[in-house]
UniProtKB/TrEMBL annotation:
Entry-linked NCBIfam families: EPS_HpsE
Name of the protein: Hormogonium polysaccharide biosynthesis glycosyltransferase HpsE
Domain of life: Bacteria
CDD domains the UniProt entry points to: Glyco_tranf_GTA_type (cd00761)
Gene name of this polypeptide: hpsE
The Glycosyltransferase 2-like domain, residue ranges: 8-143
Pfam family, one: Glycos_transf_2
Length: 325
């Protein structure tokens, strides 16, 4: 599809009928966008609630100069929803907002300005503040970044490949051409679905973009607030969540590594994961049943160790014809 707009705001959503109105109101109240041509696309990722009716009602009463579009993606998984958004988007830049991400009034203008200022940037993340429904447990700041909390100061920051650190997809802006040049048709990781918490599909996408030579940045001028409900701070949610991150980790670790080095790095990562697991058992073994943060960290280390074997056993490598091993 021919691009003819400056920016597309894409909202992948699953059962977001109660979360979407606040986000859409926030986008209706954006400022400094008079000279921008932009649009909003809601990608319904196979919702079973009234998401489609909520968007239809908004469309019937929409009086903004920029359009509000709706499309349905039946294939479950955030990777499929984002891919559909890229296909539908007409903007040169695509800003992804989850349905629980609420932008400040200058988010859209700041998103476009940054991409124009840095022509070599392929993707850039927002400054993401938490909006806790309840107070998080003690020491939760140690694992908060895994919930897409990104507060890295008020100056732009280049994510260097050597640091092995990338921004989350919440509040992420991608240059559409960078996506088309870099991201394969079939990713290895597709995102969490019912019964499977395997995640990091956003990091896989960004790794492809970075591997192709595009820069990845942090843009603090794009600020959003991430609403985190109380259930996401429970052991019942967090343990499977960190297990999913760990089990997907081998893909991200090996994506930008040359084939000759992979066997050696495979052993190095295994030894390092074993070292961390042993250290935690020796130092915190007694507390792992009572300290939620330490339990989450231990689960991450354990699942990272298992990751290559889990992925191989479940056919991820064969299915996607990848040479990660």
């Amino acid at each position: 599809m021919k691009n003819c707009l400056d920016l597309t705001v894409a909202i992948p959503t699953y059962n977001g009928e109660h979360r979407l109105p606040e986000l859409l109101e926030g986008l209706k109240n954006q400022i400094n966008t008079e000279n921008l041509s932009w649009e909003i696309i809601v990608v319904d990722n196979n919702s079973t609630d009234k998401t489609s009716q909520v968007i239809k009602t908004y469309q019937e009463n929409w009086q903004c100069s920029y359009s509000l579009k709706y499309c349905f993606e039946r294939k479950q998984g955030a990777a499929y929803a984002r891919k559909r958004a890229v296909t539908e988007a007409r903007g040169r830049f695509i800003g992804f907002l989850d349905d629980d991400n609420y932008p400040t009034p200058t988010w859209v203008s700041a998103a476009y300005a940054f991409g124009e200022q840095y022509p070599k940037v392929g993707a850039y993340g927002s400054q993401i503040h938490p909006d806790w429904e309840v107070e998080p447990p003690k020491n939760f700041e140690r694992i908060a970044p895994f919930l897409a909390i990104t507060e890295r100061g008020n100056l732009p920051l280049l994510y260097k490949a050597s640091n092995k650190l990338l921004p989350p997809s919440a509040g992420l802006v991608v240059r559409r051409q960078a996506w088309l040049d870099s991201v394969p048709e079939q990713p290895i990781l597709t995102g969490r679905v019912a019964g499977n918490m395997l995640t990091s599909e956003d990091l896989e996408m960004l790794s492809y973009i970075q591997k192709s030579g595009w820069q990845i940045w942090y843009n603090p001028a794009m600020e959003i607030y991430h609403k985190i409900p109380s259930f996401r701070l429970t052991k019942e949610y967090l343990i499977p969540f960190f297990r999913g991150i760990g089990l997907s980790r081998y893909v991200i670790r090996m994506l930008n590594v040359s084939p000759q080095i992979k066997p050696f790095l495979f052993i190095a990562y295994m030894l390092n994961d074993l070292r961390k697991i042993t250290f935690y058992l020796l130092k915190y073994g007694y507390h792992l049943q009572t300290d939620l943060v330490k339990t989450c960290e231990f689960q991450l280390f354990l699942s990272s160790l298992i990751s290559p074997f889990y992925l191989w056993k479940n056919g991820y490598f064969k299915q996607n014809k990848t040479n990660l091993i």
